[in-house]
């Protein structure tokens, strides 16, 4: 896993999982704490994430809210979009451009 950027925009690549969670959490919290306005996470280079990685994203989202900021996900890969819809986290997280309407409707039907 690698994260590049500053307190306004970070590009996340590789795998965000239990092995990289602690490092990712440190970088994300530092970025949230040192800036203002939206913090954009560009996920185009992210290969995969597990439940721990998703927890890191949610933790950064909560921390950003407490700091008066907003965490915004950009270029969420399709397999991760499906996980966000399945867990209904797409309703909580800010996703730049949203998710494709057809996919969201298919995955959220009862």
UniProtKB/TrEMBL annotation:
Cited InterPro entries: Anti-sigma_ant (IPR003658), MlaB-like_STAS (IPR058548), STAS_dom (IPR002645), STAS_dom_sf (IPR036513)
Alphabetical list of SUPFAM superfamilies matching this protein: SpoIIaa-like
Stored Gene3D superfamilies: STAS domain
Domain spans labelled STAS: 1-89
Entry's transmembrane regions: none
NCBIfam families: ant_ant_sig
Family note: Belongs to the anti-sigma-factor antagonist family.
Pfam families per UniProt: STAS_2
Annotated protein name in UniProt: Anti-sigma factor antagonist
